[in-house]
Amino acid sequence: MALDSKIPNGPISDKWTNYKDHINLVNPANKRNIDIIVVGTGLAGSSAAATLAELGYNVKTFCFQDSPRRAHSIAAQGGINAAKNYQGDGDSTFRLFYDTVKGGDYRSREANVHRLAEVSVNIIDQCVMQGVPLAREYGGLLDNRSFGGTLVARTFYAKGQTGQQLLLGAYSAMNRQIGRGKIKSFTRHEMQDLVVVDGKARGIIARDLVSGEIERHSAHAVVIASGGYGNVFFLSTYAMGSNATAAWKIHKKGAFFANPCYTQIHPTCIPVSGDHQSKLTLMSESLRNDGRIWVPAKLEDAKGIREGKLKPTQIAEADRDYYLERRYPAFGNLVPRDIASRAAKERCDAGFGVNKTGEAVYLDFAAAIERYGKEQAYVKGLDANDTKLVTKLGAATVTNKYGNLFQMYEKIVDEDPYTTPMMIYPAVHYTMGGTWVDYNLQTTIPGCFSIGESNFSDHGANRLGASALMQGLADGYFVLPYTIGDYLAPEIKTGTISTDLPEFVEAENNVKARIDRLINNKGTHSVDYFHKKLGKIMWNKVGMARNAQGLNEAIEEIAALREEFYNDVNVPGDAFSLNQELDKAGRVADFLELGELFAKDALHRNESCGGHFREEYQSEDGEAQRDDENFAYVAAWEYKGKPSDAILHKEPLVYDNVKLVTRSYK
């Protein structure tokens, strides 16, 4: 099967505008006769559902949470990018486009990224009109801060809870449509399978997670907005319920899965403290605006800190290694996430880690507190040489910018980050891979669309900070509502789709058979037992650094673990009531397949790029070494019964507007 990305012709700056001018439209009267299913109600799903319903379509939304507003988008802390150039510091649509392509290590599709940069400016206006309380400067103008991989300040934010505030805006828009009857919201429902009729997506099979009832829902189009698959690692910054089931089910029905090995490791997470943990907690990248990252320059000092004989505040400035500032002077602490993560791992592997496990570095705000304190002292006409006063004023400024993050850190670690540097270490945070989509955001299954983190299209091999919220809202508010109409225009002749079709019956029976198999297995180990074992394989052999031997071992070990899971998993309870162990079992079963494809994808890509780092392919100074001659393509995998049999399809990546060069932040 040839992959047709449907990228429009013409100059990149005109592609989206010209495309919108010529695609098919559905008139308002006909929209009332068309049904759309949206799976997932995070920023992408809720904004898409609200916009589609506002346009007149009949929308059904599905989420496994008890409310759409509890989607994992609320956990996004630092901000959302937009090329507004409010700071007058040289930002532009092209610069945002360029930074995103470069940040993704030249492994993203140019046309999609430029469109994202174009519509970014509309997102901020939309959110302000919804009442989202974005931070403002003293004069009332919207404020911006910097994020990794850029030399401008383009990140809009709402303290350290940007995702939550943006989701509440989209949720309010959704609620308006629910009140009008244009959206039917199905909470505590999980998609179990996609129904394909005559080659087109025509509905889903869902399970009511409270009653256990299996339901059939039909539609003229299905939109997957279910987020990423980072919980394949077990420990991650994702919510524990985040899963890959919806995306994996459509993959098994014919949607190609692209670049699964492109997974982001976030550099500023609270370190692992032991096997008792079920998830990890993110400290926003926005903290790298003001926090300086360092480790002791002397091995004996690092050892003394680990043994509790020294405190970080006792390490003299001259004996600290601000390694990001040393290695990447142009960007310093604001290098992209993949680079900052690998640099932290390198220092810790060399013995300079600062917690008991040796897997942590410091994020220090002392310099920022002093700088802000002196500035405030001057503004208020006070003594800028009064250390105690300066510290108090500086801490107050930091609290205004990041207070809830500092509070969260202190509650988890039981240390005051105002007086003791935070300890951070990289952790799985986001997935750039996902279902393959064309320019319309349609998968290889006609009528099945994928938006937000569940698709692969915008971030290449590494996502720049504050771009996840941008992509989710861009897809939902400003892209999908146009492109889905092009597909739906001929569907006005279809009429209502019956759920009594044989394809619905077959899909429902298959879902029930899978559930019965899990419930009746009566093995000896819990679901978490297998999930943790999978996570350790993934982190140790498919994590921050990979090599051919480890990947081959991972593929074999995951396949064996999957067989053991089906032979020995124990799911207590029954299928006809609230049963969270059954919910987890279905999700982990999908992770056990996805994990193998993930490793297979990483093994075939004999290069290092972005979040995919193969130890065999690195420069003398430890930087990622791309192979543009052989791997400048999207790897889209077709399901053929099991991950080991998946067939690779390639979409060549053509760069007409950005020159392919070695990525450098030095």
TrEMBL record:
InterPro entries in UniProt = FAD-dep_OxRdtase_2_FAD-bd (IPR003953), FAD/NAD-bd_sf (IPR036188), Fum_R/Succ_DH_flav-like_C_sf (IPR037099), Fum_Rdtase/Succ_DH_flav-like_C (IPR015939), SdhA/FrdA/AprA (IPR030664), Succ_DH/Fum_Rdt_flav_su (IPR011280), Succ_DH/fumarate_Rdtase_cat_sf (IPR027477)
The coenzyme or cofactor needed here is: FAD
Query: EC no.?
Result: 1.3.5.1
* Record key words, sorted: Cell membrane, Electron transport, FAD, Flavoprotein, Membrane, Oxidoreductase, Transport
Keyword Nucleotidyltransferase attributed = no
Query: Which GO BP annotation is one of this protein's?
Result: anaerobic respiration
Kindly give the Pfam families that the UniProt entry links to this protein.
FAD_binding_2, Succ_DH_flav_C
For the keyword Cell membrane, the answer is: yes
Protein name (Swiss-Prot/TrEMBL): succinate dehydrogenase
Organism of origin: Flavobacterium micromati
